[in-house]
From TrEMBL:
The keyword Oxidoreductase appears for this protein: yes
Annotated organism of origin: Pseudomonas cuatrocienegasensis
Family to which the UniProt record says this protein belongs: Belongs to the short-chain dehydrogenases/reductases (SDR) family.
One Pfam family cited in the UniProt record for this chain: adh_short_C2
Protein name as it appears in the record: NAD(P)-dependent dehydrogenase, short-chain alcohol dehydrogenase family
Oxidoreductase among keywords: yes
Residue ranges, annotated region (Disordered): 1-23
Biased composition (Low complexity): 1-16
Entry keywords, A to Z: Oxidoreductase
Superkingdom assignment: Bacteria
PANTHER family the record matches: NADPH-DEPENDENT ALDEHYDE REDUCTASE 1, CHLOROPLASTIC, NADPH-DEPENDENT ALDEHYDE REDUCTASE-LIKE PROTEIN, CHLOROPLASTIC-RELATED
Taxonomic lineage: Bacteria, Pseudomonadati, Pseudomonadota, Gammaproteobacteria, Pseudomonadales
InterPro entries with a match to the protein in the record: NAD(P)-bd_dom_sf, Sc_DH/Rdtase_CS, SDR_fam
Amino acid sequence: MSVQQTLPPQHQQRQPGLEQAMDPQPVYITADYRSAGKLTGKVAIITGADSGIGRAVAVHYASEGANLVLLYLDEHDDLAVTRREVEDRGVQCLALAGDAADEGYCRKVVEQTLSKWGRIDILVNNAGEQHPQASLEDISEAQWEKTFRTNIFAMFQLTKAVLPHLRRGASIINTTSITAYKGSPGLLDYSSTKGAITSYTRSLAMNLAERGIRVNGVAPGPIWTPLIPSTFTAEEVAEFGANTPMGRPGQPAEVAPAYVYLACQDSSYVSGQVLHINGGSVVNG
């Protein structure tokens, strides 16, 4: 393996990607993670919960005692793994496939969540997609709209549906990206949506402060998730994360504890902030 190679070269033709097809398999929780019941009795809704960061957040939340609503598009086999891991930790979950940018689906999610538990305490807006292109001229209007629909329209729709049912002390956590701060020449539409998510997070935090609802974000750097082999070439995957100060990609298990922190009372005085989990890259702003 060369100095620059961090992963075996690989590419998946299907989008969204599948975690079961990745080599090596991502790590979504480590053996030394110590839970403390920080979310006992809470109910959390997580988008993109089938794999990657979403799966890691779900498993960590289950370890902390939260019951979960696992939202995903159509990756049924990956979702089955997440569901098993969650239920093995002694909590309950609902798994609902669909498009979070669809208003009717979001209403269904809220209705079924309230029917089962009567409450919603945490919303994690995590689902996203990206489609690398070399130049702006290569991005079709359809691609631009699709990326915005998945990455930011869905946050609007689901948050709007959930918001009337959140109580004082609830937490909303949005997944943005290092690309919102540093840019990415090959991910123009994706980076733009992540910039929108960062501004949305800050503005919504101020809007909801009087209601006692906290809103924060997490900005991952290069994390080994199905998004990577399904959108980059095998050669690009082989060097994924090599340009970070730590010289490697991160694992979902290294990101998920930030979502635990932002969901629980440990962060009771934190709102409108973004945590940067990126392998040592210094991000200002």
